Amino acid sequence: MSNLIGSDDEDEFEFKAPVKKLKLEKSPISTDFEPSDDYMEFSVEEDKLVDSKGSKKNSLETSLLESKSIGLSMMQRMGFLIGDSLGLSKDAAKEPVKVVPKHDKLGIGASSKLRIKQNLNRQTVDRYLRTQLVKERQRRATCDILKLQRFCLNSSGDVDRIQSIEQAKSVNCLWRSLALEMVCKPRNGRIIDHKTEASSTLEFESAEPTSKLEHLSALLDYARENHFYCLYCLVEYNDAEEMGAHCPGKYVESHTL
Asked: Which SMART domains match (predicted)?
């Protein structure tokens, strides 16, 4: 029988038997397997823990000749013996320059001195605290005085009628400095004479209270008695009865929670 090409060779049509595919079966996983060593269970020996800060400090304080350092071993290989001088001269140093740690921000070459805390006695500390307390009260009083002066200047109507220095000098001495400052500022490109400004300032200084605390106390009394206003409540009450019922006191200490 001939093929399509015309050949009678039957060897080209050999029968090939099908190949059976082997199926690989997975071995069952044993659930009873227990590892012999648990890698999560280990003990830490405290003796092997090294404090980095302490070791660094000790290394700086230890001499190079007393420590087993790489630098010393290299010097010994080159013929150096402990006790010999470093160099050809006999007067040379017998030990490398010791490292002096710097505890400040000065440049290289500046003397590095540790800051020693002074032992201050109790009287000096108390005196310093009292001074700082007085300064803080003065600073707070200055801010409160300016707030009350602005309130009184507006509530009294003086802010609308003051147009000159003479009118500013006629207002209440408690807020006269603010009125003079408002008038003496340059307006419309004109500057008031400095002599007039200086004389008005001196006149005010002679009329105002002697200290900031007295000045603040007088302003607080005026605002409370005439306008029922409390600076620390930030409320202008209707009358004295309402103010007495809701305001805890005159000074800021009464309003502290």
From this structure: DUF4187, G_patch
Q: At what angle do helices 176-184 and 194-207 cross, to 10 degrees?
A: 170
Kindly list the domain boundaries of the chain, sorted by start residue.
122-226
Confidence of residue 154 (pLDDT cuts 50, 70, 90): very high
* 21 Cβ contact partners less than 8 Å away, ≥ 6 residues apart: none
Against a cut of 0.85, is the pTM above it?
A: no
**Residue that the structure tokens 């340059």 belong to:** 186
Q: Is 189 left (phi over 0), alpha (psi -120 to 50) or beta?
A: left
Question: What sign does the CA torsion over 64, 69, 70, 75 have?
Answer: positive
Taking the C-alpha atoms of residue 221 and residue 63, their distance in angstroms, rounded to an integer, is: 74
Distance of CA 118 to the CA centre of its chain: 25
- The 10s digit of each residue's pLDDT in 96-132 is 777 666 666 766 666 555 454 555 677 888 898 999 9
